[in-house]
Automatic annotation (TrEMBL):
Source taxonomy: Bacteria, Bacillati, Actinomycetota, Actinomycetes, Kitasatosporales
Recorded topology in the membrane: Multi-pass membrane protein
Annotated PANTHER family: LIPID II FLIPPASE MURJ
Protein name per its UniProtKB record: Membrane protein
Keyword Cytoplasm: no
Keyword Transmembrane helix carried by entry: yes
An MF annotation (GO) of this entry: lipid-linked peptidoglycan transporter activity
Region Disordered, residue ranges: 1-26, 247-294
Bias (Basic and acidic residues) ranges: 254-264
Segments traversing the membrane: 35-55, 129-147, 167-185, 192-214, 220-241, 303-322, 349-368, 389-409, 429-447, 454-472, 478-501, 522-539, 545-564
Compositionally skewed regions (Low complexity) per UniProt: 265-294
Amino acid sequence: MTVTPPQAGDATIPPARLGADRPDPGSARAVSQGFLARAALVTVGLSLAGALLGLGRDQVLARLFGAGSETDAFLVAWTVPEFAATLLIEDGLAFALVPAFSAAVARRRTHGDTGDPVRALVRSTLPRLSLAFAVASALFVFGAPYLVEALAPGLHNPGFAVDCTRLTGTCVLTFGLAGYCSAALRGHRRFVAPAAIYVAYNTAIITAMFALGARWGVRAAAVGVAVGGALMVVTQLPSLLRQLHRRQTAPATDRADPTDKTDAADTAVTADPADPADTTVTADPADTADAAAPAKDRRTMNLTLIVTVLLFALCRQSQVLVERFLASTLPAGAISHLNYAQKVAQMPMVLSLMLCTVTFPVVAQALAEGDTERARDRVECDLRVVSCVVLLGTAAIVACAPQLVHLLFQRGAFTARDTAATAAVMRVYALGLLGQALVGALVRSYFSAGRPTWYPMAAMTAGIVATSWLGAWAVGSFGVLGIAAANAAGITLTALILLYGMGARSVPIRTRRVLAEMSKPLRAAVVACVVGGFCASRIDSPALGLAAGGTAVTVVFLLLARVLGVQDLAPALRTVTRRLPYARIR
């Protein structure tokens, strides 16, 4: 899929709009809002396709295998790819490698024929990381019995979970390589291939369940995980190889040339030829000093950074361990209800963070150039947009949870009782979605400077401790609902701690102003949720109830957001509606 930007000579484009999204001419280094809008649209589009396929995967899992002891066993094995995705693709490794590749791409423009910093970075990091991924994968495969016993000591079918874990353990190697490719491509501001990996991954799992489910049961899904991980790497490899073989002496403006056949195939989001500032990168003077620094010192610094970000991601994902450990003591199906509720409820959070995925290299570059004000403005804008998107989604999920779960899952082995239990869990879990989204957005700011910091891990540790204590206290009285409530409380605490530390340890945002702005969509979401829930409950048909409730939530939220003066909502809508008609997708 290629998105072609509007051209100056295109007769279908009103001339007055050609410069509508350009940055201040005095800011030559700024990335244009038009480029970010196009990149975000492509990223969101492909990520949405992957998320919808993920929902389809869960629907197939529920239809074919229901919510019983074997499904619980598979979901314990599913912990491995969940952890691997967070550590190696979505968060951990990306926080260390995206700034490193962004800096290497900037140095590539100044080194000429003296050597390619990008290839040098690949040579110095890829072999070591690949070996680490392979060793970790082998440990998961051979240590599966011990892992299952540690994760879910009260599981009803541990042998089945061990079989599935040995299959899913292979994804540590493939996810690690896929995460490396994603970070390298995002450092080059190439977003299509990284955004498409979950389309390939979920397609493989769905295909495996249909093709092998009758013979192997839910083990077929574990086979799909192993195959899908390999497809993640294959999806990105051609684009990455093209970037590594680019000419070293690129123009300083880094303007994408539509006639450059070498780069056209993987420049999925092409810089606007009429806007030289679209992808301009100015070399940081500090890069020269960094290039002259001893290689051993740089490796030590990078190793420390990698350790800090991986420990943060590991700590964050340990929420899943706490939930499944506590739920393993409950009746069969509890882990499955938690899983289905989370997969649906997390969609607004995942989509809201797509903008941060696109702007992460931009913030990293601004900090590398010493432009703190530009980084601050970008981060504050991201936080406002993320809050609007996730709060709108939260209101819709809480208002329409029974109808949503019924339409998505209630068929085959998934009964009406499972629908009621999953919807109740979803409503409680959704209360922590704003905290989840803020943690995902804020932690990128902490690591965007490419320097190690332990503060995010300390904040996440505080949240995990709160989740564990509250969950252990609540599970006896409230069951799976208590686990979901503990999750929401713990991640919200982490988000507040990260916000508190932004000024001194990260991008110095104006915290009080940001909180005041976020309170506006929060108020709108509460009212919209009440109205939408009332509308959805008055209609017997799940489909019509979902349509009525979702429409009511959206209309009320947008109207109140406008009345309350929510920033960035109207400009974002105008940018999207203006760009969509001019993006030719083929």
